[in-house]
Each structure stands twice: as C-alpha cells, then as structure tokens.
Amino acid sequence: MYSIFHPLDPNEPLPRELLLEGRRHRLMDIRHLEIAGALYLPALVLAIIALGTVNVNPVAAFIVAGLLLAGFFACVIRFRSD
Questions:
Q1: Which burial class, exposed, middle or buried, applies to 78 when counting CB atoms under 10 A from its CB (0-12, 13-18, 19+)?
Q2: Comparing 54 with 32, which gets the higher pLDDT?
Q3: What does the alpha-carbon distance between residue 43 and residue 55 come to, in Å, rounded to a whole number?
C-alpha cells in the first residue's frame, strides 16, 4: 500500500479551500437556522391569526411578519454557540 500512496504528514497544513470552508460553517451554523425556521412558522401563523381577528391592514401584517423574521434571524446571529 505504501508503494502507491505515501503516509500522510501530520504537520502538513490544510489547503486554503478547507480553511475557508471551516470559516464559512463557523459563521452561520445550520442547526440554529433550522431551529429558528421551525419556531418562525408557528409564530407567523399566530401573528397572522391575531392580526386577522383585530382587522389590521394587510400591509401592516406584512410589516409585522417581516419584523418577526428579522427578530428570529437576529436571535440566530446573537445566540449561536461556538
């Protein structure tokens, strides 16, 4: 086997592509986005039902839904664990 492939050097640095990929995954962890997405949908439905019972303007309902999405996204960015 060693006649075809030489043994891996433990001191060899990682290629630049692997370093960039590691940084990309550290910036936005997909698990937190999945949790926020799972919580956003029920919150959006409850907000639409609540705004519908109060007879709020549909434009205001879309603004509230956008603010709700921005709030969930801000929570993902702020409270991600390293």
A1: exposed
A2: 54
A3: 18
Q: Give the angle 17-21-25 at the CA atoms, nearest 5°.
A: 175
pLDDT in tens, 24-41: 555 555 666 777 778 888
Contact 32, 80 (CB under 8 A): yes
On whether the pTM is more than 0.85, the answer is no
Cα angle for residues 10, 12, 14 (degrees, 5° grid): 110
**Quick one: tokens of 38?**
């799972």
Encoded tokens for 67: 């603010």
Cα-Cα end-to-end distance for the chain: 39
Locate the domains of the chain by residue range: 29-78
